[in-house]
Amino acid sequence: MVVKAKPHRTNEMIPAKEVRVIDEEKNALGVLPTSQAIQMARERGLDLVEIAPTAQPPVCKITDYGKFLYEQHKKDHEAKKHQKQIQIKEIKFRPKISVHDYDFKMNHVKRFLGEGNKVKITVMLRGREKQKPELGYQVLDRVLADVKEMAAQDGSARKQDWAVSALLVPTKLGGKDAKVKNPQGSAKEVQGHGEEKNSPRQGQ
C-alpha cells in the first residue's frame, strides 16, 4: 500500500532550526526555535505546519492540520469555480452568404464573444472561388467591422486552398484568471443554413 505524502511538512518533519510562527488565532509570535514551536503546538493539542517553506526563516502555523487541509481544499475549489473557461468557437461562412444566414451566424459570433470566448471565422471557398481568395477576405472584413466594438483580430488572417480564416478575441477576456479551454476549436461548429455537412476540416 502506497502512503500518500503530505502536502506540507509538519512538526518534526520541518528541517529548519528556527521558524517564524503564527498561532491558531493568526497572531504573529515571531521567530522561535522549531523545537519550542512544536512544543507550543502540542500543548494546545495542535500541529506545527510549514506554510511558507521558502521564506527566511520558514513560516509555520500552529493549527489543526486536518482542518487546515480541509480549508485549503475548500479555498482551491472556490477559486476554480470562479475561473472563467475560455473556449475557441468556429463559425463557418460562404462568400455568397445570404443576409439571413449572415445575420444568423453573426448572432452566434456575438454571443460567443459576449461570453468571453474566442471565435474563429472561416470562410469556405469552393470551385472557382478558390482562385479568388479576396472573396473570403471581404467576408472577414465585413465580420470584423460588425464586431469592432466588442472584439479584435488576433494576428493575421490565414489562407488555405479551400478557405481563409481569422481569429477574433473579445475586448475583455474575463480577467486574469481566465483559462483557455479547447485551443483547437470547438467540436460543435455553427454550420447550418444550407452548408454541406461534409465540409473540409480545417487544420491548425
List the helices and strands and how they pair.
Elements: E1 18-22, E2 28-33, H1 34-43, E3 47-52, E4 59-63, H2 65-81, E5 85-93, H3 99-114, E6 118-124, H4 134-146, E7 151-160, E8 163-170, E9 179-181
Notable traits:
204 residues, Translation Initiation Factor IF3, 9 strands, Ubiquitin-like (UB roll), 27% helix, 4 helices, five-stranded mixed sheet, four-stranded mixed sheet, alpha/beta, disordered C terminus
Overview of this protein structure:
This protein has 204 residues and is an alpha/beta fold. It has two domains: 11-81, Roll (Ubiquitin-like (UB roll)), CATH 3.10.20.80; 85-181, Translation Initiation Factor IF3, CATH 3.30.110. The chain contains four helices and nine strands. It has helices at residues 34-43, 65-81, 99-114, 134-146; strands at residues 18-22, 28-33, 47-52, 59-63, 85-93, 118-124, 151-160, 163-170, 179-181. The chain has a five-stranded mixed β-sheet.
